[in-house]
Amino acid sequence: MKKIVLFVALMVGVVLTSCNLDYFPSDELNSDVLLQDEAGAEYIMDGCYSLLKDEVEFLGYSSGNSFVRHYFQMSEFPADNTCLSSHTTDPLYEATALKMTDNLKNVGTLWMVAYKVIYMTNTVIESTEEGASATSDHLLGEAYFVRAWMHFNLVNLYAKPYSHGRDNIGVPLHISTNNPEPFREKVGPVYDQIVKDLTKASQLMGASRGNAGYPSKDAALGLLSRVHLYMGSYDEVINTVNTMLGGATPASKLDADLANYFINAKTSSETLFCIAHEPTETPGQSGIGSMYINDGMGWGEIYPTSPLLYLYERYPMDLRYTSFIHPQYPDPLLNSTTVYFPDPETADDASGRLNLSFVVTPDGENYKFTDGGKTYIVEKKTVNGEYFEYHVNYKGEDCLARVHETMKNRNTNPIYYVSKFSYQDGDPMLSSPVICRWGEVILNRAEAYAQLGQDAKAYEDVNVIRKRAGIPADGMFSTSDKHGYASALDVVLDERRLELAFEAHRLFDLIRNKKDVDRKFPGAQPWEVVKHTDDRFQYPIPNNEWTVSHIPQNPGY
Question: What pLDDT, in 10s, does the model give residues 297-309?
Fold first, then answer.
């Protein structure tokens, strides 16, 4: 190679010592070694999976500095499902508040690890002869799968969505260990290569060679259905999912025990691919779950937003609400009802936006409270013609409000813990975070049907997901009963929000569909509606990258 791009020495042997595997010395890991023994390819691929979850050092920082943690936080926190209760020194704050800079550790670490893994997969691809054996073909398929997924993450996080234009500047596309002078390929060709790689992976792989921490043919097709969805290739989404089903019903692919699905994700048949963790690999307070829950340990600083809670509470028996979201109430003897809503004026970098809270008294179907000698009405408003939410006009702003039993709070934010990343093997900080699962794949097809105007089929897929979640018959959708929604697409997007909350989908679902992000809720983020075209949704190219390789920086940085 000419320049060593991506500000790391991209040698396969430079796999960090925190990994749980032993590695060949860097001067011995070459094509000759791999060709002598197909176990070499397995060695490298296992190293890729370890590198995705291990803490790595970047700019002198290692605690909590893992690809998987940054991937979920950087993908999820800029959207509208989560609120950070107050400022934190963790770089997740900048992701949440859309105040990114090019020298932050999460921005640089994710980029660095992704391209390191891509280099490792390229070594396997270049050194493994196709057709030599079923085992080596499967490992070759794994390499294509992981290379595709890494490029997909990079182009989604550091470039504009495909739906905003194929010719927008993308990310460096690396399909060889001997890359020319580095440059940022356009978004379209990056996606084209991802499709090519996943198609090849699906042809080479069969069943997983272990638990869901190892990809399979269906994992490649499942991710391919997402890629086609993001590209607007809706017929291809439907064809891909139908191929995966092979005549089976969508319901048969879902884990019947939804309440325990994430605890058992690593071994559940619903999981197509996850970042598998063993009991000895607990991340403790450095894990994803630590930000969502406090159970003996953990920070417990990230909560579901008010709009998401209202969406769940349309059907309070929804297992996705009762199983994974846990409101923290104080002593019930307090017997008080409180309204909570964001202060439209009070916010700063030290604390984020504050909630206001007042004990309320009933006023017909509304509530009221007094502040500064003035009486305010908390008004119950109808949504979609059959649901409701509360609002209060305060300081000239219409504020979405929550009215319920007085709750424990952090920085005035009511505490709702989330357990999707907790309790594997009984450990509150341990999980095997899910990258792709059947629940998503079915909803990928549902959206494709909706985009093509095949509403009845879209509702059928949505209803399969809702039935598994325990939604009663009167909560199902049909062409004759859309429950007040304007379109089948709106139905599907809300169902994706309910089903896939906190799993790194929501931001991309909104901006690829050219929908603005309403962030007028409590938390550290600015109180604003962010346009889907806003450059802040694209992370900056890391400083250590663009200053060395001289690839162009993203706008606004």
Answer: 999 999 999 999 9
